[in-house]
Amino acid sequence: MDYYGKRLATCSSDRTIKVFSVTGDQHAHLADLTGHDGPVWQVAWAHPKFGSLLASCSYDRRVIIWKEERENAWVQLQQFSEHESSVNSIAWAPYEYGAVLACASSDGSVSVLTHKPDGTWERVKIPGAHPVGCTAVSWAPANVPGAIAGTLGPNQGSNPRLASSGCDNTVKIWENVNGAWKLMTYPALSKHTDWVRDVAWAPNLGLPKSTIASGGQDGKVVIWTEQKAGEWVGAELNDFKVPVWRVSWSLTGNILAVSDANGNVTLWKEALDGQWAQVTTVQ
């Protein structure tokens, strides 16, 4: 869904991206975007302050930035070929940092693409982020935990942070310090016994701590919380007994959606005692 919840972008192994309008329970097909040469794994809308932009990543090793030049007429604004293998995941940074896109690839690296004021894109790579392959990437909120609104930006002491997951069974945290990406987790966060398929940093409006969810091929979902700067503790939310494909937070960060290989999507919420419980199954 886009920022306003009015449009939906979907992607498919048929190599296409489709855009729909959504009103209540009604939807209408608006556009087809073609240009990838392999399955398209993920699409992501940029914040509307940067215009109508959509990013996509594919098995064809490419990332494409699409721009809606006029209503329902999309063009390829930029194409990136930074990776040597499938690009599995993309995520736009909080808008406070500008138009910045992180990309995770099976070549083991994470690339960070930053739109500069002169219209060019700066390309920075974190090589060997997960040497066996990187599956997903997620940005930390720009505001500090407990803030009422996302007012902290990069010029106010908030360094951009990223979480990445990989085929080495770990989750890693990266921080941009003086323009360079540095690993902030020693050792890497390890509670999974198989590939970590997805990682998601929770929004933290009003929440007192940084929280990350990870889902694995081992069927487990782990909730990681930062006890103090750089120290993370993981607690198992549930063992689904089948691979977990995706984890996704609600906008307020208090409900986690989990999709698994049984075809289920379940919603989970943390109780006052810190225990997580399933609240519903999405039909």
In the CATH hierarchy, what is the superfamily of the largest domain? YVTN repeat-like/Quinoprotein amine dehydrogenase
Q: Give unreliable regions as ranges.
A: 150-156
H/E series:
EEEEEEEEEEEEEEEEEEEEEEE
Shape: globular
CATH T-level topology of the largest domain: Methylamine Dehydrogenase, Chain H
Number of strands: 23
User: How far apart lie the N and C ends?
Assistant: 19 Å
* Strand ordering within the main sheet: 4-5-6-7
Q: Mean pLDDT across all residues, rounded?
A: 92
Percentage of helical residues?
Answer: under 10%
**CATH second-level architecture of the largest domain:** 7 Propeller
**Structural class determined from secondary elements:** mainly beta
Q: Provide the β-strand percentage band.
A: over 45%
Query: Helix tally?
Result: 0
Number of domains in the coordinates?
Answer: 2
In the CATH hierarchy, what is the class of the largest domain?
Mainly Beta
Q: What profile does the largest beta sheet have?
A: 4 strands, antiparallel
